[in-house]
Each structure stands twice: as C-alpha cells, then as structure tokens.
Amino acid sequence: MVAMQCQRRCRRCRKPKPPLAHHCHICSRCVLRMDHHCPWMNNCIGFHNYRFFVLFTFYLWAGSAYSAWMLLWELGRIGRMSQFHMGEAVYPYALLVPFVLSAAVSIALTALMGWHFFLIWQGQSTIDMLNFWRDSKEAKAQGTTLIHPYNLGLKRNFQEVFDVSGHRLWWIRWMLPSRAKRRGDGIFFPTMYDSLQVRPQDLDLTPRTRQHISEVLSQSDTSAV
C-alpha cells in the first residue's frame, strides 16, 4: 500500500520515500520525517521518537538549570559568611566546579531546546528547515514567496508533535513522561491545504513548491479513499 501511495523513491535505497522522509547515510535507511542523526543516542531522530528526544532535552535542561541555581544560591550563602571553619575552607571550591558544569550544560541545552521549539513552531524538521531556507532564497530571487504546506500554526503544530490534540490540558500534558507511540503512520500528515478551495497552480508559488503541494494533495486524496 505504501509503495502505491508514495510516488517518490529514494535514490540510494530504492525504496518508497514519503514526504518529509530522508535517507540517513549513517543508518543506511530512510527515516520517516527525519530530523537528524543523533550521535549521543546512536540513532536517527524522526517521526517515532522526535517527541521523546525533545522531552529528554527538556528534562535535561530543567535538571541542569535547577542544579546550577541551587549551587549558585549555596555559593552566595557561603560568600556572606564572615568566618570559615578549617573543614569549610575548601567547600566553595568543591561547589564551584559542579556549578560551572551545570551552568555550561544548561546554556548549551537552552540553545538546543530553543532551536527545536522553533522548529515545532514552524512545523518543520532540521533538514526540512535547511532545505526551506535554500529554496526560499531561490523563490525570493524569482520574486515569489515559498510557503511550507505542513505549517498548521503554533498550537496545532505543538499538538501534532507531542500527540496531545484533543486533550483539554494539552499545555501541561505534553511535558509528562509517556511511553505511548505517536499516532499516525508517518507517511500522511495534515497540511494547510487540506481545505483549500483553489488549485495549487493558481497560487503565486515557485514551480518546485507547486509540484510538491500537488503531490501532497494527491496523496491525501488517495489516503482518504
């Protein structure tokens, strides 16, 4: 069924290549909605585990930030002390090293987490964002604007990634640990053109974008049948 619905094939593994899928040269396979290959996880981050990766990053950031704050508070308390006992003389130095490490990790994770929350906001993956920037420059040179069809808006994008759509407290539920698999097949995704009343060829888009949207709409029609 996948082979019939997917019009593209990977040039490397010769297998059906759905939209947003990319081939990982390290794993030697195509990954659904691939974001990147993570050397720390020794695995590709894509459709099935992207939510867990973002949550893992969020938990690490919260833990390192909390550790840095508590160590800083303790260092400040010691700094206000007028006298030290002999055994407490090395205490500040023992706290300084873990504080520097916690602060450095917290800053690095802030940048990493900020990048991925930005991607969620835009409804894109790292690979797709880099390709989008490249194609946007080409579109701008032609005097047109490139539109990303999978950007459903901040709230909808967030709910799709963390699989919390339909929950009243989704803005809290997303950060709770969960082992549930993400809903969907990683092949068909909702687009901003699902309720479009005009044809893609009638829009002011680049030929590459117009062709891509036509493929997305045709596959959506096939899945509906």
Describe the structure.
- With 225 residues, the protein is mainly alpha-helical.
- It has one domain (49-224).
- 50% of the residues lie in helices and 5% in strands.
- The protein has 7 helices and 4 strands.
- A two-stranded antiparallel sheet has the order 1-2.
- A hairpin with a 4-residue loop joins strand 1 and strand 2 (29-31).
- Helix 2 packs antiparallel against helix 3.
- It is elongated, with a radius of gyration of 23 Å.
- The relative contact order is 0.12.
Quick gist of this model?
By secondary structure, this protein is mostly helical. 50% of the residues lie in helices and 5% in strands. It has one domain (49-224).
Main sheet specs: 2 strands, antiparallel
**Strand fraction:** 5-15%
Strand order of the largest sheet: 1-2
Q: Gyration radius, to the nearest Å? A: 23 Å
What average pLDDT do the residues reach? 82
Counting DSSP E segments of at least 2 residues, the number of strands comes to 4
Structural class: mainly alpha
What's the shape? Answer: elongated
